[in-house]
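Something for you to look into today, if you have time. What I am after is a single protein written out in full by you. I want to see for myself how the chain folds. Could you add the entry underneath, on a fresh line?
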Amino acid sequence: MDGRYGHGSEASSSPSAVARDKGRDSPTRHPRLKTVSTSSGSDWTNDGGAMDAFISHPPAAAYHTTFSRIACNKRFLGFVMILGAAVLSSFFIMPALVMTYPGIVHDLAFMNQIRWPPFTNLSNPGDVGLSATRNFYFHTDPEVTVGAWHILPEVLGSEVSSGDEAEYIRFLQNGSPIILYLHGNAGTRASWHRVQLYKVLSKAGYHVLAFDYRGYGDSSGFPSEEGIVEDAISAFRWIRGHSNESAIFIWGHSLGSAVATGTAKRLNQAGEHFDGLVLEAPFNNFVDAAFSHPLAIPFNVFPWLSWILTDAIKSANIRLASDENIAGVTVKTLILHSLDDEVVPYELARKLYDAALQAKKGSVKFVTFDEKYEYGHKHIHMAPDLPYIIREFTAPPPAKADQ
């Protein structure tokens, strides 16, 4: 027993306990207690009356312990109930928000209001660690001006002197392959993971042209599916008009993969030549991407609420149907996806790949990255073998032997 219940306790001096002890020839073992030796060597069970008194009249500390446990259990139960109510209510916050304000689907699809990193001077690429890079602007229609960066291949960096437009256009015509980069939603062309990819591609020997769609960064206007595809087509035509016959590849990430696929389809239909399409972390269509997003968990847990999101998507007029547009793309295509992508699940990229295989005339290659590398949705640029994969994909086809 605990030392606080040793000799000299209130129970051992009780008159009733003394009276009960008279006439007993042997100690009485209390049925509810085990034999425990105290520091003085005596046995609590040798004084059955004392133990009876202890059980009948426990010390105040015992009451305090019992009530504390009850109070703690009640507090814990209350916490669990509050937490459960909060979790349950959160499942209805998003459906209620979408039903009240369907336009939130458009905002979440493009997220152009999020400018990250904040306070970046987009007119000075050096602020984000880019050298040999020119900032410039071009019109995609009479009322829209977009901001863009031209990042030179790393090997040309030491040759930059004036850094003016004429010099950069001269570099653009040197025959090195060119990548038109179409970014995903949120942020700007200065977002960290995008800058890291520019550096990888520049080091591998590519020109990179990255721009912000209308409504993003320092570009004017307001984004829409049709509008950002028009921006991409205008960017391609600007490159083609200033690069002679250099190879051009269109690279789209996440939302940009749908823009890239729509752009590629339009260019192929118009007979405008480019050399290949790279889709990083792509999805098959916006409906599937929306329902697969973590914010859509309530609509999946409670399927009877799914009509709210479906109607909002229809009213936003956003399709981003890459699985349909890919059928009109005739150039070779490379799909890159990390298996641990939690924003756009691998299954959606696989659906797009399957659609491409069924419909496309050009070759399709699907490269996945194991989840153990933790590249997630935005960091395939960290893959050591990415430059090799891109060089292999962009290499010109072998010349045909003369017959």
The mean pLDDT is 84.
